[in-house]
Design brief:
Elements: H1 36-41, H2 63-67
Amino acid sequence: MKTIEFEADVRDSRIQVPRDENLEACHVKVILMWDQERARRSGMTATTFSPPVLKTKGYRFDRKEANARR
């Protein structure tokens, strides 16, 4: 897998990818990193995530089924 690194500003939840890389119709893996202090100073807000909710009322655990190899 080839890697490029660049910095960009996010505008309307979009990032402009450099045009000199031929990425048309390519599948890419994106990793976002940002400086939280800098974002806080510039007025950006961090997205908060709520914990997942699992409804377990009435669920019956079956150890045999859990250990079954399929």
